[in-house]
Amino acid sequence: MRETSRFKYRLYRIDRSFQTSPLFSHESMADLGIKAGDKVLFVWAQPSAPAALKQRAEELAAIVGEDGRVSMENMERLLMSSHSASTFDCVLSCLLADSSSVHSSETLAELARVLKPGGKLVLDEAVTGAETQDVRTAEKLMSALKLSGFESVHEVTKTELTTEALSSLRTTTGYQGNTLSRVRISASKPSFEVGSSSQIKLSFGKKTPKPEKPALDPNTVKMWTLSANDMDDDNVDLVDSDALLDEEDLKKPDPASLKAPSCGEGAGKKKKACKDCTCGLAEDLEQESKGKQTTNMAKSACGSCYLGDAFRCASCPYLGMPAFKPGEKIVLDNKTLTDA
Question: Which of 53, 173, 239, 272 is the most exposed place for a label (fewest CB within 10 A)?
């Protein structure tokens, strides 16, 4: 019994020492943008004092009230947690002064997943002035947050690392430098879900406003309007359309007069009829083509070439071909003409 009392007293002394330790930051949680009814996720890293974690959870619970919720999660087990997407209004990561850790791209992506659209992220991380393999600069950290889907990324404060936090970081990353500082970054998730889509209406052409139609004079409209009653009105003079044509208009035009002066002509150019020719040039060119084909046909000297090889000369170009009708066009290949 005496040993139990002594153990309780020792725990009480440890708890009191953590509450008064300078490792714990006493800034107000309300300054982080947390309000009543919010769902808050607090991510912590080793080594974090149990008393400090307990006090931080109580402070958060007092702000969010009964309608809110506070969840505590270890960073090493964050990716294995079962938190649903878009659950928390605010995420606080590594804000305890006695611990420090590096947020990987997978961790940042998970924090963005569990945040609600428009939710806020506040994190602390150790940064260095020059880029190293283990620790990054504040600019690189802000760039990583933007690549993970966050917006409105900005630096809030920048302080020196405590001895305990520096020791924790060296144990975690193996970094042995001394040019380290602790930076606090604030960011927010966009006001839409990850993976959501929306149709964008793009218009690259300049829209020309349509001219307004001029107002018509009622008297003018009445003048050009003819109703069925006007057909029987003796006061309305109707003109016969046939009476508007004279004898010259009724004559059939000469085809030569329908041709344009320069139709099919040109300096050094071949005559060519227009598409959908109506002046007769297409027919003329077709007749000329047929006449040339008839002229180029091989002529028979004896007049018996069409009867067959028995009636053909030794130099006849049709030698070896079957008989054909007189006047029928026979096409000879180049080899036959060469041999002849």
Answer: 239
Pick from 96, 114, 199, 97: nearest CA to 150 = 114
Q: Cα–Cα distance between 32 and 42 in angstroms, integer?
A: 12
CA distance 43 to 72: 6
Sheet holding 39-44, edge to edge: 69-74, 39-44, 88-93, 115-128, 180-188, 151-160
What's the rounded Cα separation, in Å, for the pair 261 and 81?
90
Residue the block writes with tokens 């949680």: 29
pLDDT digits (tens, 9 = 90+) for 231-250: 666 676 777 788 888 888 88
Q: Whole-angstrom Cα distance, residue 75 to residue 310?
A: 108
CA angle 16, 18, 20 (to 5 degrees): 70
pTM of the model as a whole: 0.49
Q: H/E element holding 147?
A: helix 138-147
Could you tell me the two tokens for 159? Answer: 């302080």
The answer to whether the beta carbons of residues 108 and 142 sit under 8 Å apart is no
Spatial CB neighbours of 113, under 8 Å, sequence gap ≥ 6: 85, 86, 194
For the stretch 301-331, pLDDT in tens is 677 777 788 787 877 877 778 887 776 766 6
Distance (Å) of CA 103 to CA 45, 132, 148, 255, 267: 10, 15, 11, 90, 81
For the four alpha carbons of 14, 20, 23 and 27, in that order, the dihedral sign comes to positive
